[in-house]
């Protein structure tokens, strides 16, 4: 009542109240709707259900720093498990030759029985023109492949890991795979062909029988192993099958290798490239390429064991 104010008339009080309520109710209702929509969005996002989707033209948000990117359709990246388990499988990797063979020439030159014939216990292997030894290459690729296979659950054994004075001889290399009851054996090598000859190839056992050799039971599964290895190695490395051997098929069948003749389990050799060719040698001496080579070997074995 101060400041000269007068109380409103009874009729005006009711009319004014109605006008105020008419204005407030819609506003309150609109605010309630807005609050509900915001609160609902928050709940959906937290639960992972009913989250808003992006349009077909919008780009997905990048993953947080350090988070792995989603896999692409091109397959698993080198060094990553393929998703196919090898639990319960035994794989023997046979790194060709031995870095110490050169120090024991008379011992590796002695002849051993390969079933159908006799052959040297082992050799020193070949090397690039710059002196990078095949025995060093085979150990590096074999160790990388072992890491990949063990990550998939396989039990991996080596015929030698640079821990022997020489060898083992070719007959013992076969026996190691046999005694392990290996599901697959791969002998890793690099070729020493003429300069200008490029590419890789996989050596398969010929069907032979004589003396202690009988490959009749392993030729078929060894071919399947070789075919998987050829496919995966080419894909992983980008290398082409050698044109100078095996009619360019990437596969060569031989009956003169003790490591194959005496094997009773599926086994193949892979010649990863030609160390005497400058272009192949540039790849064979590159650590990143050797990682891809190991991935190809591991993937080929994995595919074979999951057929």
Brief descriptors of the model:
307 residues, alpha/beta, 6-stranded mixed β-sheet, 8 helices, disordered N terminus
Give the overall silhouette. globular
Could you tell me the number of beta strands? 10
Order of helices and strands, N to C?
HEHEEHEHEEEEHEHEHH
Q: Describe the sheet with the most strands.
A: 6 strands, mixed
Which runs of at least 5 residues are low in confidence (pLDDT < 50)? Answer: 1-79
The averaged pLDDT comes out at: 81
Structural class: alpha/beta
Number of helices: 8
* Overall radius of gyration: 35 Å
Kindly estimate the percentage of residues that lie in beta strands according to DSSP: 5-15%
Helix proportion of residues, in percent? 25-40%
Strand order of the largest sheet: 4-1-5-10-6-9
| N-C termini distance | 97 Å
What can you tell me about this protein's structure?
- With 307 residues, the chain is α/β, with parallel strands linked by helices.
- It contains 8 helices and 10 strands.
- The protein has helices at 10-47, 105-109, 134-151, 170-179, 219-237, 258-261, 278-284, 287-305; strands at residues 90-95, 111-113, 118-120, 155-158, 184-191, 201-205, 209-210, 213-214, 251-254, 267-274.
- Strands 4-1-5-10-6-9 form a 6-stranded mixed β-sheet, sandwiched between helices. Strands 2-3 form a two-stranded antiparallel ribbon. A two-stranded antiparallel sheet has the order 7-8.
- A hairpin with a 4-residue loop joins strand 2 and strand 3 (118-120).
- The protein starts with 9 loop residues before the first helix and ends with a helix.
């Amino acid at each position: 009542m101060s400041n000269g104010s007068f109380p409103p008339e009874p009729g005006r009080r009711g009319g004014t109240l109605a006008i105020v309520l008419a204005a407030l109710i819609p506003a309150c209702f609109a605010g309630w709707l807005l609050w509900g929509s915001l609160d609902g969005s928050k709940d959906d996002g937290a639960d992972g259900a009913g989250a808003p989707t992006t349009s077909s033209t919008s780009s997905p948000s990048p993953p947080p720093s350090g988070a792995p990117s989603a896999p692409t359709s091109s397959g698993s990246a080198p060094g990553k498990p393929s998703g196919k388990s090898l639990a319960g499988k035994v794989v023997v990797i046979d790194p060709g030759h031995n870095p110490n063979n050169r120090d024991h020439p008379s011992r590796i030159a002695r002849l051993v029985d390969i079933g159908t014939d006799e052959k040297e216990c082992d050799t020193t292997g070949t090397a690039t023109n710059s002196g990078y030894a095949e025995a060093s290459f085979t150990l590096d690729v074999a160790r990388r492949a072992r890491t990949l296979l063990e990550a998939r659950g396989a039990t991996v054994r080596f015929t030698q890991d640079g821990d022997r004075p020489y060898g083992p001889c070719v007959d013992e290399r076969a026996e190691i795979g046999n005694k392990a009851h290996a599901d697959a054996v791969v002998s890793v090598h690099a070729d020493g062909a003429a300069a200008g000859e490029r590419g890789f190839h996989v050596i398969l056992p010929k069907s032979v029988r004589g003396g202690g050799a009988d490959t009749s039971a392993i030729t078929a599964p060894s071919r399947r192993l070789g075919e998987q290895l050829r496919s995966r190695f080419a894909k992983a490395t980008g290398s082409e099958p050698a044109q100078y051997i095996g009619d360019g098929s990437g596969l060569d069948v031989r009956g003169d290798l003790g490591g194959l003749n005496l094997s009773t389990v599926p086994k193949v050799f892979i010649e990863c490239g030609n160390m005497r060719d400058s272009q192949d040698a540039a790849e064979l001496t590159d650590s990143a390429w050797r990682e891809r080579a190991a991935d190809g070997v591991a993937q080929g074995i994995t595919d074979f064991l999951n057929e």
